[in-house]
Amino acid sequence: MGNVAVLEGLKKVEERIQGRDRVLTIGDTASIAGTSVNDAKDILTRLLALYDCSLKITENGDLIYDFGQNLHKRGERTWEEWWFSIKQMLWNVFVFVFKIWIAVTLVVYFVIFVVILIAMIIATLSGNSDGDSGGGSSGGDSDGGFFSVFGELFRGIFIWNNNTSTHYNYDNDGHRYREYDRKNSPLNKKSKDFVASVYDFVFGPPRVSMTRQDQHREVAQYLRENKGIITKNEIIGLSGLRSGDAENFFSESIAKYQGDAEISDNKVLYGDFRDFIRSKGAGGKEKIIWYWDEFEAPHYLTGNTFWRNFWIIFMNLFNLCFATAFLSMSMQQDMGAGIAIGLGAVPFVFSLLFFLVPILRYFPISALSKKRDLENMRKRLMKAIFMSEEGKITDNEFLKLVNPRESGEKNISADTVNYMMQELIKDLDGEIETNSNGKLLYNFVNFQEEKREAVILRQKRDDGRALGEVVFDSHD
Q1: Minimal CB count within 10 Å: which of 327, 417, 435, 450?
Q2: Once rounded to an integer, what is the mean pLDDT over residues 161-189?
């Protein structure tokens, strides 16, 4: 009967939050559903799996489930998200088609036009003479080398997803970031693969990014290593999410991993996932990387060297010139529709697009770079907050934590720090105050109390991994 009562109660509570009553306590839920407190907790956990929700505690230590002003199903996309997905899908289709076009056009047409040019030069030099017919057999080795080179090119053309392994690099500000290992040329292991350079010239080099699934795996590993206890601020420290998104991620984790939202004796909200960590040792080996330990990668237009871009531009200009010439000749004399289109229109349109795409990409890169710089500075500010043990600290003292001498990172100005702290301190339940001397103070008292409480909660708990002896085996 318990499951029936929970399902019936779930329907009643869901109807209530679909109206105007979207802020509930466990007592409210039990009253609406007509169930026990334990069943009310089960109902709320099920609702967390269905809808976005923020968990809050009052000054009296009561837990509140806030489903927001507008009820929103988990995973349901807003119009902005749908539009973004549509644009991303269209871009991916364009990239796929254009890469095929690159494979067929840039290299193939370049070879065709080079052969035509050589034939024209030979014809001009030799006139009507038949020439030396024995010359073709003497270049066997060079022909083999020629076809070997282009064979390697074509082999690499259709290998598009090589972004598997990564390494760390440093930007001009001394920030360490992850980037994909470059695909080396099969002909010269010390050089970047030419076809990969062509793709990067048009679409830009791929950047390492963190998905929501990556964040969940990281949180799961953190729970395994920290006795199944996590706080909202720790989720912020792992993911870098803003406060509202972190609260929603916290409640999503409660539902996803069947945890419990608990309030400690000192009125600190935390997630308890004790059952989640019980295992025989087999589990994920996800490396835990704090938000501030991995900076955003730079935005590059091509990521290629000057000379690599020079030769790519040369090849495309070469094709563009020949295509233009064939179009011009086709207009002056009847060359046949096939030649006019195949050697004129197709490579002409391609060559224009080949230059147009990176030109259009150039303009948003500046804005993206500024956004990336702000995010990297936010990481350093957050690290200073998490590493500090001070409940209250002056802006000058905090600036020294943000710009340690030994870091090798470019200093962030005091004005920039003060500006960015206006938002960041709210995410971590802090306040900005002024002391008796008129100096600016950053108040992290609540944050520090939550950090200490998490340590105490873990100290009180055994590791929870010992499963004990097997007392029943279905094979027996």
Answers
A1: 435
A2: 76
